[in-house]
Automatic annotation (TrEMBL):
Protein name in UniProt: BTB domain-containing protein
PANTHER family (alphabetical): BTB (POZ) DOMAIN-CONTAINING 2B-RELATED, BTB/POZ DOMAIN-CONTAINING
Principal location class: cytoplasm
Keywords in alphabetical order: Cytoplasm
Disordered as annotated region, ranges: 1-22
Organism: Orchesella dallaii
């Protein structure tokens, strides 16, 4: 050091005019500096035009070096081995098949690894996964699929399942498929279900393990047919609905539905031909040992493994009720061995789209103690105004005749509707068409006129 000081060479002077503000001092660490470069556009050397005229179009800039470090596709593009759509007049690279928001998420991941901290919708994650696949950014693909796995719900399961098929993401596809099978009865009530492909719909209708009552499957298929007519610019007449259903309707196991529901729900839809109505009603009224004498049915009468039945306890829905967050319970008993699948609740009275934290327990009603046979807790359950929604136990809970049970529940969220009945104690007969022709529920309202429905298996 002394040699340098005595060498006679002048020391370099710091510039004094104009004063420079060193941005690096306010951006600690590599992540902070890269985030600054991304946010300010400093030294960026490549420009993209992202999106197309059908949606948003945005000009986005980046650094070639950063993109090439993460993506061999970008490297080939910049090295001239791969030509993307390029505007020859201004040297802008056009990317019409990716949404601007997804491309920005991709850049944030490349520069600073921000992905899990971003509040992204399911559709935004799927768009980002498409971008990651296109540009072969494996780390981002993994991040997207993990986020999708942890966010599968009744609201998005169909979209995630079909995207996983398209992207050949086996684990994600299997998780979404299993979720859909377990929750098909609820999924069919959601808007996302209306986007299911014909092939995917047939897959679930053919599966014996798809969980739903056959009547709810019929209504779900009819909702899908109405939407499909709209997509094809056809009027939603019964003839057109039958046309779009083609070979789908035969996968609905109509003979499993009760005679009353066939008469009141299926036949009035006008989706069946007169001959099919006759064959179906013949099947229902003839004794099982004589059905072989009837013409062949065009519908399967094979019962699904997880077919569920519904006991309904209130005559009608009334106005708003009290806060149910502290917990309430009603009592009930049955006259046949069954397994309880879920409790159904009235949704909000005035809020269009509400969210509840729901706790449910099934207990023996004993004086000294009430042993818990099954319980479940769900956070952020989405519910529409005046809708009945179901909350499932993790596994069906077996119960037996001659025992009194408590159906305990807690709903934390907006005030709900409540039910109206002639009496606080009622008997409800549910036809099940098994060796027990009916199951009788004896139901007593203790405090809250909630819990209008219970789903069960035999």
């Amino acid at each position: 050091m002394a040699g340098v000081a005595n060498s006679g060479r002048p020391l370099p002077r710091k510039p004094t005019s104009p004063p420079l503000v060193d941005w690096r001092k306010n951006c600690p660490g590599v992540d902070g500096k890269l985030k600054h470069l991304l946010g300010t556009g400093l030294l960026m050397d490549v420009t993209f035009r992202v999106g197309n005229e059908k949606g948003e179009v945005e000009t986005i800039r980046a650094h070639k070096l950063m993109l090439a470090m993460f993506s061999s596709v970008f490297e080939a593009m910049f090295m001239g081995r791969f030509v993307e759509n390029r505007d020859s007049t201004d040297d802008i690279i056009a990317i019409p098949d990716i949404q601007p928001s997804a491309f920005k998420t991709l850049l944030k991941f490349i520069y600073v690894g921000e992905m899990s901290r971003l509040q992204l919708s399911t559709n935004e994650i799927l768009e980002t996964l498409y971008a990651a696949k296109k540009y072969d950014i494996t780390e981002l693909e993994i991040e997207c699929t993990q986020m999708l796995k942890s966010n599968i719900s009744e609201e998005n399961a169909v979209s995630i399942f079909q995207a996983a098929q398209m992207f050949d993401e086996k684990e994600l596809r299997e998780e979404a498929h299993a979720f859909l099978k377990r929750n098909f009865d609820i999924v069919m009530q959601r808007d996302d279900f209306l986007n299911i492909s014909k092939e995917s719909l047939c897959t679930f209708l053919q599966d014996d393990d798809t969980f739903a009552s056959e009547l709810s499957i019929f209504h779900g298929v009819m909702r899908w047919a109405e939407t499909e007519c709209s997509r094809m610019n056809m009027t939603s007449s019964s003839d057109n609905q039958r046309l779009v259903l083609e070979d789908i309707l035969e996968l609905v196991r109509l003979p499993v539905i009760t005679s009353e529901d066939i008469a009141l729900e299926v036949i009035p839809s006008r989706i069946l031909t007169p001959e099919e109505c006759t064959l179906l009603l013949q099947y229902k009224v003839v004794a099982p040992q004589n059905r072989a004498l009837l013409p062949a049915l065009p519908f399967s009468d094979r019962r699904r493994s997880f077919s569920a039945y519904k006991a309904v306890f209130y005559d009608e829905m009334k106005g708003k009720y009290v806060d149910l967050s502290t917990g309430w319970y009603n009592r009930f008993s049955v006259d046949q061995p069954v397994s309880i699948v879920s409790f159904g609740f009235y949704g909000p009275y005035t809020v269009d789209n509400a969210s509840y934290t729901v706790s449910i327990k099934l207990m023996k009603d004993e004086s000294e103690s009430c042993p818990v046979l099954g319980e479940a807790i769900y956070q952020n359950v989405p519910v529409k105004v005046k809708e009945i929604f179901h909350v499932k136990f993790h596994h069906p809970v077996p119960i037996h005749p001659g025992i009194l049970y408590r159906a305990w529940f807690s709903l934390k969220g907006p005030l709900t509707c409540h039910g109206a009945a002639m009496s606080n104690t009622m008997e409800v007969i549910v036809p099940v068409n098994t060796r027990y022709q009916n199951v009788k529920f004896t139901y007593s309202v203790i405090g809250a006129h909630q819990l209008p429905e219970i789903m069960f298996q035999v």
